[in-house]
Amino acid sequence: MESINRAAVVVKPGKPFLDWLHRADPTSQNLTLADLHREPTVYLVPEYVDEHEVLTFLAEKVMQIFEEHLDGWYRVPEAWPAVRDLKTFQQWFEYSIHSQVIDLCDYLIEHEEW
User: Fold this and answer.
1) C-alpha 60, offset from chain centre
2) Is 83 helix (H, G, I), strand (E, B) or coil?
3) Which residues of 11-34 are buried (b: 16+ CB within 10 A; e: fewer)?
4) Buried b (16+ CB within 10 A) or exposed e, 35-55
5) C-alpha distances out from residue 101 to 1, 21, 94, Å
6) d(Cα 87, Cα 47) in Å, to the nearest integer?
7) Model confidence, pTM
8) Distance between CA atoms of 20 and 4, rounded to whole angstroms?
9) Res. 76: pLDDT tops 90
10) How confident is the model at residue 109 (pLDDT cuts 50, 70, 90)?
Protein backbone atom coordinates (compact mmCIF):
# COMPACT_ATOMS: atom_id res chain seq x y z
CA MET A 1 0.00 0.00 0.00
CA GLU A 2 1.41 3.36 -0.95
CA SER A 3 0.33 6.95 -1.42
CA ILE A 4 0.64 8.23 -4.98
CA ASN A 5 1.47 11.71 -6.20
CA ARG A 6 -2.08 12.48 -7.31
CA ALA A 7 -5.28 13.84 -5.87
CA ALA A 8 -8.74 12.77 -7.01
CA VAL A 9 -11.89 14.55 -8.10
CA VAL A 10 -15.10 12.51 -7.91
CA VAL A 11 -17.73 13.81 -10.36
CA LYS A 12 -21.47 13.04 -10.42
CA PRO A 13 -24.10 14.67 -12.65
CA GLY A 14 -26.37 17.09 -10.79
CA LYS A 15 -29.99 18.13 -11.26
CA PRO A 16 -29.31 20.57 -14.14
CA PHE A 17 -27.60 17.72 -16.00
CA LEU A 18 -30.56 15.41 -15.38
CA ASP A 19 -33.02 18.12 -16.47
CA TRP A 20 -31.05 18.60 -19.71
CA LEU A 21 -30.95 14.83 -20.31
CA HIS A 22 -34.73 14.57 -19.85
CA ARG A 23 -35.24 17.37 -22.41
CA ALA A 24 -32.68 16.03 -24.89
CA ASP A 25 -33.54 12.33 -24.74
CA PRO A 26 -37.19 11.32 -24.35
CA THR A 27 -36.13 7.76 -23.48
CA SER A 28 -34.44 9.05 -20.29
CA GLN A 29 -37.62 10.20 -18.56
CA ASN A 30 -37.48 7.42 -15.95
CA LEU A 31 -33.86 8.12 -14.97
CA THR A 32 -33.25 9.72 -11.58
CA LEU A 33 -30.26 11.38 -9.96
CA ALA A 34 -29.72 8.15 -8.04
CA ASP A 35 -29.35 6.36 -11.38
CA LEU A 36 -26.80 8.92 -12.59
CA HIS A 37 -24.90 8.73 -9.29
CA ARG A 38 -24.53 4.95 -9.29
CA GLU A 39 -21.11 5.00 -10.97
CA PRO A 40 -19.40 8.36 -10.36
CA THR A 41 -16.31 9.15 -12.41
CA VAL A 42 -13.03 9.59 -10.56
CA TYR A 43 -10.38 11.79 -12.15
CA LEU A 44 -6.80 11.78 -10.96
CA VAL A 45 -5.38 15.29 -10.82
CA PRO A 46 -2.05 16.75 -9.66
CA GLU A 47 -1.34 16.98 -5.96
CA TYR A 48 -2.27 20.36 -4.57
CA VAL A 49 -1.59 22.69 -1.67
CA ASP A 50 -4.95 24.44 -1.76
CA GLU A 51 -8.25 23.87 -3.56
CA HIS A 52 -7.63 26.83 -5.88
CA GLU A 53 -4.88 24.83 -7.60
CA VAL A 54 -7.30 21.99 -8.35
CA LEU A 55 -9.93 24.40 -9.67
CA THR A 56 -7.32 26.00 -11.94
CA PHE A 57 -6.43 22.56 -13.28
CA LEU A 58 -10.12 21.65 -13.68
CA ALA A 59 -10.73 24.88 -15.60
CA GLU A 60 -8.19 23.66 -18.17
CA LYS A 61 -9.82 20.20 -18.41
CA VAL A 62 -13.48 21.09 -17.86
CA MET A 63 -14.50 20.91 -21.53
CA GLN A 64 -13.06 17.39 -21.79
CA ILE A 65 -14.78 16.26 -18.56
CA PHE A 66 -18.08 17.90 -19.50
CA GLU A 67 -18.10 16.34 -22.97
CA GLU A 68 -17.21 12.90 -21.63
CA HIS A 69 -20.27 12.99 -19.38
CA LEU A 70 -22.57 14.39 -22.06
CA ASP A 71 -21.39 11.78 -24.57
CA GLY A 72 -21.81 9.03 -22.01
CA TRP A 73 -25.52 9.78 -21.68
CA TYR A 74 -26.52 11.28 -25.03
CA ARG A 75 -24.33 11.04 -28.13
CA VAL A 76 -25.80 13.92 -30.13
CA PRO A 77 -23.37 16.86 -29.80
CA GLU A 78 -25.89 19.23 -31.40
CA ALA A 79 -28.10 18.74 -28.34
CA TRP A 80 -25.32 19.44 -25.85
CA PRO A 81 -25.31 22.78 -24.01
CA ALA A 82 -23.24 25.39 -25.82
CA VAL A 83 -21.58 26.73 -22.66
CA ARG A 84 -19.34 24.15 -21.02
CA ASP A 85 -17.07 26.26 -18.84
CA LEU A 86 -16.04 25.83 -15.19
CA LYS A 87 -18.93 27.92 -13.87
CA THR A 88 -21.48 25.82 -15.77
CA PHE A 89 -19.68 22.63 -14.72
CA GLN A 90 -19.98 23.69 -11.07
CA GLN A 91 -23.73 24.21 -11.57
CA TRP A 92 -24.36 20.99 -13.52
CA PHE A 93 -22.21 18.57 -11.52
CA GLU A 94 -21.57 17.59 -7.94
CA TYR A 95 -17.89 17.04 -7.28
CA SER A 96 -15.59 16.43 -4.37
CA ILE A 97 -11.85 16.83 -4.15
CA HIS A 98 -9.71 14.30 -2.31
CA SER A 99 -6.07 14.92 -1.46
CA GLN A 100 -5.21 11.42 -0.30
CA VAL A 101 -5.00 8.72 -2.99
CA ILE A 102 -3.75 5.35 -1.82
CA ASP A 103 -2.84 2.57 -4.24
CA LEU A 104 -3.75 -0.79 -2.67
CA CYS A 105 -2.58 -2.83 -5.65
CA ASP A 106 0.83 -4.43 -5.90
CA TYR A 107 1.15 -4.02 -9.67
CA LEU A 108 1.82 -1.04 -11.92
CA ILE A 109 -0.95 1.21 -13.17
CA GLU A 110 -1.59 0.68 -16.88
CA HIS A 111 -2.31 3.75 -18.98
CA GLU A 112 -4.73 3.75 -21.88
CA GLU A 113 -4.97 6.69 -24.29
CA TRP A 114 -8.38 8.29 -24.86
Assistant:
1) 13
2) coil
3) bbbbeebbebbeebeeebeeeeee
4) ebeeeeeebebeebeeeeebe
5) 10, 32, 19
6) 22
7) 0.91
8) 36
9) yes
10) confident
